[in-house]
Amino acid sequence: MRILIEKDYDAMSGRAAALIAEEIERNPRLVLGLPTGDTPVGTYERLVHLHKEAGLDFSEVKTFNLDEYAGLSAEDPNSYNRFMWDVFFGRINIGPAHVSIPKGDDPRPDEFCRRYEEKIKAVGGIDLQLLGIGGDGHIAFNEPGSSLGSRTRVVTLAKETIADNARHFGKKELVPRSAVTMGVGTIMEARRIILIASGKKKAAVTAQFIEGPVTSMIAASALQLHPSVTVILDEAAACKLRRLDHYRWIMTLEEERAGK
Ligand code: F6R
Known about the structure:
It is a single chain. By secondary structure, the chain is of the alpha/beta class. It has one domain: Rossmann fold, CATH 3.40.50. It has nine helices and ten strands. It has helices at residues 9-26, 41-54, 80-87, 109-122, 159-169, 184-188, 203-211, 235-238, 244-257; strands at 2-6, 31-34, 62-65, 67-69, 99-100, 128-131, 153-156, 178-181, 192-197, 229-234. The strands form two sheets. The chain has a seven-stranded parallel beta sheet. The protein has a three-stranded antiparallel beta sheet with strand order 4-8-7. Helix 7 links the parallel strand 9 and strand 10. Helix 1 packs across helix 2 (41-54). The chain is globular. The model has no long low-confidence stretch (mean pLDDT 97). Fructose -6-phosphate (F6R) binds at residues 35-39, 66-67, 132-134, 138-140.
């Protein structure tokens, strides 16, 4: 894993957006996997800025979102679909035909999940997957105990996740109890992965998934087995890493080599 430590949330977001923009410039037909949540908002802001100010072109990019709350329609104000269009897709030049988001209210959810996997395969797989991480180590909605080989499916949300996400719904009783999510196995097939984490409340889980054992109890720890993962942290999220000095040392050497 390549570990990059930035000063704060803004710098973390800028670094993630720059890496994504580089990949789109290299391959305008990039297939991009995307998360929702608070963490990626700054990255999406930066990408919108690069689109508006520097002409970053999304017209041929295809996107696949990681997850959606079960039972919510695409139009529901709390749906991840709505979030993505408000925060990102509605502000760049991407058409609805190039956007895929799991459907929370499909009458045949298992069939839907199978088709979602097929759709990813049909476009040649995900080139670059952006991820956030939950306080319990989940990536997408793969809660502790999720099989590391799991595929897109309907899952029950952990009580911790329901409590964490209650802020968006007003109270926790209103948070759906289940969700449609890509599996850990689905995510692991992406060619390149960038995980972003920010703030003190992510510090303990960040140390666990990077430096602890690979375990289904921390779904993100599976990323240790992926050949191309970049983790971008702010100082607060990085503060519990045992090898912090070593990661900083690597960054210094890389900067020297790049003549910065
Ligand atoms: C949502 C997703 C989740 C979030 C995680 C962190 O699409 O993939 O795994 O990344 O719950 O959420 P925030 O960024 O709100 O702390």
